[in-house]
Amino acid sequence: MAIILPDLPYAYDALEPYIDAETMHLHHDKHHQTYVNNANAALEKHPEIGEDLEALLADVESIPADIRQALINNGGGHLNHALFWELMTPEKTAPSAELAAAIDATFGSFEEFQAAFTAAATTRFGSGWAWLVVNKEGKLEVTSTANQDTPISEGKKPILGLDVWEHAYYVKYRNVRPDYIKAFFSVINWNKVDELYAVAK
Ligand SMILES: [Fe+2]
């Protein structure tokens, strides 16, 4: 057994014009594949710990020290990207009534949620991710992480995530991260977010 790169759930050009096909090819076939390869190389050194990355990253101290950072980076990279592909769709979707109500209750309105998420994505310095999570109290929260760190390691359940590494947007958006963040909101798969929220809450 080994971790395998999942196929995209849509064609490489399906998210055009918001996310371009060249970026999707590079991002999925090269970057994500590299995280998979490096995670497998780390796991092979310690077959006794298994391959349940979510469980391992939920308790990073349980990971053998000699592969801990490699798994945080590459196991996290795999989990984050596998989730990210599913969080986008070319179809028009909207949050369920229940999620929409939770967003309104937490942030005031959808627009205020979008502003908070956009701020988290914009201000994450260097490489990382912006997230909407269900926190330990069962509440929605906008947060961000550095590098490939997953909110799972902080006891939070990610239900929406945006990759703000330059590799995610530089081909099309160059240095203009805010335009990429805005475009992301046109391709969010709210059906998937709803599904994750229902499990996480
Ligand atoms: Fe990425």
Give the arrangement of secondary structure elements.
Layout: H1 21-45, H2 53-58, H3 65-86, H4 97-107, H5 110-123, E1 128-134, E2 140-146, E3 157-163, H6 170-173, H7 177-184, H8 190-200
Largest sheet, in brief, is: 3 strands, antiparallel
Which regions are unreliable across 5 or more consecutive residues at pLDDT < 50? none
Strand content bin? 5-15%
Q: What is the highest CATH level, the class of the largest domain? A: Alpha Beta
- The succession of helices and strands, N to C, reads HHHHHEEEHHH
Q: What is the distance, rounded to the nearest whole angstrom, between the alpha carbons of the first and last residues?
A: 31 Å
Please tally the β strands and state the result: 3
Q: Compute the number of helices.
A: 8
CATH topology of the largest domain: minor pseudopilin epsh fold
How much helical structure, as a percent, in the residues? Answer: 40-55%
Bound molecules: fe (ii) ion
Which architecture name of the largest domain does CATH use?
Answer: 3-Layer(bab) Sandwich
Structural class: mainly alpha
Using only CA atoms, what is the Rg?
17 Å
Strand order of the largest sheet: 2-1-3
**CATH homologous superfamily designation of the largest domain:** Iron/manganese superoxide dismutase, C-terminal domain
Shape annotation: globular
Catalytic activity: 2 superoxide + 2 H(+) = H2O2 + O2
Function: Destroys radicals which are normally produced within the cells and which are toxic to biological systems.
Binding site for Mn(2+): 27, 81, 163, 167
Pfam families: Sod_Fe_C (PF02777), Sod_Fe_N (PF00081)
